[in-house]
From TrEMBL:
Keyword Oxidoreductase carried by entry: no
UniProt subcellular location: Cell membrane
Family the UniProt entry places it in: Belongs to the UPF0702 family.
Domain YetF C-terminal: 33-116
Keywords (A to Z) from UniProt: Cell membrane, Membrane, Transmembrane, Transmembrane helix
InterPro entries: DUF421, UPF0702_alpha/beta_dom_sf
Protein name: DUF421 domain-containing protein
Keyword NAD carried by entry: no
Pfam family, one: DUF421
Superkingdom of source: Bacteria
Length: 121
């Protein structure tokens, strides 16, 4: 299980295909023996938008184009930017769009929902 965990993050980090190779086998064996290495290569969730503000530096770091972000907002049925509380690039590579609640006036996200999400680089 640990091998597959490292393999996923390593492949997404390098944007490689999932073909096995000697290098993969060697790298993951080293990563299992040195836990500090796993923290270096792990992808923690990254905040891409806070409210209606697009965090350009985070987009650049994540290598996501603004047009890709806008397409994801359309998929999430966002018609106006003021409907957004936050947009997060998950460690899996998925983009999560957190909408503002229509039921309450309170527009903050519970802290547990954004726990572990990097806001600034």
């Amino acid at each position: 299980m640990l091998y597959s965990h490292f393999r996923y993050f390593y492949c997404s980090w390098l944007s490689c295909n999932r073909k096995s190779s000697f290098f993969d086998f060697y790298f993951f064996n080293i990563a299992e023996k040195f836990p500090a290495l796993s923290s270096t290569i792990s992808n923690k969730p990254l905040l891409l938008m806070r409210g209606n503000q697009i965090l350009e530096e985070n987009l650049k770091h994540a290598r996501i184009e603004k047009s890709q972000l806008i397409a994801k907002l359309r998929e999430a049925n966002v018609s106006r930017l003021n409907q957004i509380q936050a947009v997060v690039l998950e460690s899996t590579g998925d983009i999560s769009v957190l909408h503002k609640s229509k039921d309450t006036d309170e527009q903050s996200v519970d802290s547990i929902i954004l726990e572990g999400v990097r806001e600034k680089l």
